[in-house]
Amino acid sequence: MAAPNGEITSVTAAWAPLGRSRLREDGFTRFQGAGYGGIDCAPRDFADLRAAFDDLPRDPHAPGSNRHRRYSQAVYLPWSDTLSWIPEATDPVLGPVAEYWQDTFNPDFPGLRRKFPALRAGLKENGLLCELIRANVGHVLWHDELARSPVYVGVHLIKLAVGGPDEVAVSSPDCLHQDGGRSMFTFAHLVTNDNVDGGENVIAAPGCAGMLPDAVAFEDVLARFRLTAPLDGYAVHDARVSHYVSPVRGAGGAAGSRGVVIMGIAPMSAQF
Questions:
Q1: InterPro entries recorded for this chain (predicted)?
Q2: Dmax over Cα atoms in the chain, in whole Å?
Q3: pTM for the full model?
Q4: What span, in angstroms and rounded, lies between the C-alpha atoms of 140 and 23?
Q5: Domain 17-267: which topology?
């Protein structure tokens, strides 16, 4: 649960069956951070995960976006509960990097294979992060392709950071979108939410991809919400919905940031 200062003191409750059913039946679900995933979360693990957002490098592909990020990939074997991180390549400028490809799903970077600075080695051993991966994979094993395949997990740390109310930080793409194919799932977990306005999440029908939420027919908007507490989050079955997060601005005239762990989960044979 969250203490008054926003720190995590424990995360012990199991996934509710209703939450699992909603993702399977509706194509998306939401969850509260307090009691996520049956995880016994040590306060130090959350503190270390939060600290990992302090020095995220700027997105090398979008220098004016006020977006900062790292990215690494892992493989999980559900039948043996084995999690292995895929070794990174080395870039002469960025250092250790992982390659991220969304085919044509991201209109900002269609067909581009982007390289992002990798997660720091120590974070890959973080107990909370590793258990979040396991909990998320466990949430989608009803899908036949995932139950019979090594599971490919892309882990993003993304921070939208602004220096004041006149600055805007934007996610990519800045429209309703999808991230992959029919067996792709995306999970988002809020970690930091300090002195910012915005960051509204919108879930809509799949045909709304490429549109801004205000242009979508009322009946096609499935949910609007904000993540506010540590580890609050949501999950989407990518083929069945589109999703969006609005830009953020500083609140109260000061600098602020919003940091989220995003996990893309798909069968090993998929590219994402």
A1: 2OG-Fe_dioxygenase
A2: 51
A3: 0.87
A4: 8
A5: Jelly Rolls (2.60.120)
